Amino acid sequence: MTAAGTPVAVITGASSGIGAATARGLAAAGYHVVLTARRKDRIEVLAAELAAAGHRATAYALDVTDRPAVDEFALSLDRCDVLVNNAGGALGADTVATGDPADWRQMFEVNVIGALNTTQALLPALTSGGDGTVVILSSTAGLATYEGGGGYVAAKHGAHVLAETLRLEIVGAPVRVIEIAPGMVKTEEFATTRFRGDEERAAKVYAGVAQPLTADDVADTITWAVTRPSHVNIDLLVVRPRAQASNSKVHREL
């Protein structure tokens, strides 16, 4: 699938938002980007866009929660130098007392088990290449709690712990483990998906915030971290907009 002499970066959840922006950033940095997501049509359009710009890109439809499919995908690659575990998302903003266990389960499956699946399947290739990088895209939700976010916070805490534990367990191997934890990011789908298509409710998340982070801001951060010299590991990088001091302290110009 991939060119033998070109470093390969696999990006999960590459059909939109931070994943798509990261694919553009790493492609511009010289990687053959392998775009994975469930929405095949979206990643094929992105792959065509990147190819037209002179970059190497391959689209591969994949559900990261389907372990046999992830294993099959791993076998299709000739090499893997970077894995960006970006697939994730939030569902609802219910309290612990009223939250739907099915929503909690789905968030855990995508944000934690999905990252576990791809990391386990691709770690041999990342290691054998002699200079691998695993990126876990967590969230500031993985570092501090907030009301109405219990399920998402729990899932992102799981992603944070996955990164920390993996780094401890593979120290000495030629693989870096980088965690990027964004704060308030405004993308075309995150909040709308969280509130099940309720655009008015989604818009209130960003009301009065002049400049929340964009997908490009986070992608630029990921690309910077990945392209540091191989002996430099960015263990954990928290990135927020200037207007956000914490998960619950945001300056709004209303």
Gist of the model:
The chain is an alpha/beta fold and 254 residues long.
Number of strands: 9
N-end to C-end Cα span = 51 Å
Structural class: alpha/beta
User: What is the gyration radius calculated from CA atoms?
Assistant: 18 Å
User: How much of the polypeptide forms β-strand, as a percent range?
Assistant: 15-25%
Continuous helix count: 8
Q: Characterize the main sheet.
A: 7 strands, parallel
Explain how this protein is built.
The chain has 254 residues and is α/β, with parallel strands linked by helices. It is built from eight helices and nine strands. It has a seven-stranded parallel β-sheet with strand order 3-2-1-4-5-6-7, with helices on both faces. Strands 8-9 form a two-stranded antiparallel ribbon. A hairpin with a 2-residue loop joins strand 8 (244-246) and strand 9 (249-250). It is globular and about 55 Å long.
Produce the secondary structure layout.
Layout (H helix, E strand, L loop, with lengths): L7 E4 L5 H12 L3 E6 L2 H13 L4 E5 L5 H10 L5 E4 L15 H28 L3 E6 L12 H20 L5 E8 L7 H5 L4 H7 L9 H12 L9 E4 L4 E3 L2 E2 L4
Parallel strand pairs: 1-2, 1-4, 2-3, 4-5, 5-6, 6-7
Antiparallel strand pairs: 8-9
